[in-house]
Amino acid sequence: MAFIKLYRTKLQENYHFLDDLFKTRNIEWGVVSKLLCGNIIYLKELIALGTTEIHDSRISNLKKIKKLNPSIQTVYIKPPAKLSIKRIVEFADVSFNTEIYTIKLLSEEASKQNKIHKIIIMIEMGDLREGVMGEELIQFYGEVLEQPNIEVRGIGTNLNCLSGVMPTQDKLIQLSLYKQLIEAKFNVQIPWVSGGTSVAIPLILKNARPMAVNHFRIGEALFFGKDLFTGETIENMHNDVFKLYAEIIEITQKPNVPDGELGENVAGNSFSIANIDDLSGTSLRAILDIGLLDMQPQYLEVEDENITIVDASSDMLVVDITNSENNYNVGDLISFKLKYMGALHLLSSDYIEKFVV
């Protein structure tokens, strides 16, 4: 059986590190929970941290959060689909928006539900995902102001999510200038300037963030402690809040090269001898009870540094344990640290058990 463990103390320590980082700089922040895929056990752990604002890209997850704690401010972090409008107004206090058509639908639904729905207007800053073009922002904001039951909570941007554009100081200064422009033009106050996600934390640590940028959405740094500029772990944070454990179901000495006519495997890959030093030799291989149905091997990092991942099929993962100093047996567990996308695959699988330590 393969399973994931969440280490509570490490999660708490990462959370308090971030909370102190933001509070000492008068920054508001929300936790992005989409990695947890609506798992009730883990959502309860998140809420127990004391967070008052949770972001997600699935309405079903926000519904669970509201059921667990109705006082938490929920934020839907992508432009709403027409078919989801009713549920978004019902379960999301705030949503990200880029289309007047959609905002009008939110306005109509909010009126029906006798609610004020808050929105963040997302601005295109170069990453080429969602966002209103800068030159259209003033006209866009003017139209938004005409919509009843809609409150503009802030403006924001998403960087590094599609094209890899990084949130530099210049980018965030530009975002700050949009706030000044709107406030001067319409004589309004913009409470939030939401400067992005975990990728912006290095700028905050260097105190290079423009003061007007006062809100962030944090997921990856909380769960993995990662500096997305360098790829290293942020000092005083943990990179192993989550670990995967998979059981060995076979150990056999086998040839390094397959025997027979070769074609593509189930994943569409072809065998390559490029990384094999001894074509006539053998290696001690272990098969683990997890496969492509639940994970992608490139997002796993074996904790035993002397084990290498060979490849995976739909339900099994093959690793080379030849050089390991551990005397593994069938039934033993091999542990893995996870990258963000690795955890996302695993947490979305109903076949992987989830535990808290």
From TrEMBL:
Recorded superkingdom = Bacteria
Pfam families documented for this protein: Ala_racemase_N (PF01168)
Gene Ontology cellular-component terms listed: cytosol
List UniProt keywords, sorted A-Z: Isomerase, Pyridoxal phosphate
Report the residue ranges that make up the Alanine racemase N-terminal domain in this protein. 101-225
Q: Does the keyword Oxidoreductase apply?
A: no
What this protein needs as a cofactor is: pyridoxal 5'-phosphate
Among the GO molecular function terms of this UniProt record, one is: pyridoxal phosphate binding
Q: Does the keyword Isomerase apply?
A: yes
Q: Which PANTHER family match?
A: ALANINE RACEMASE (PTHR30511), LYSINE RACEMASE (PTHR30511:SF3)
Q: What is the name attached to this protein's record?
A: Putative amino acid racemase
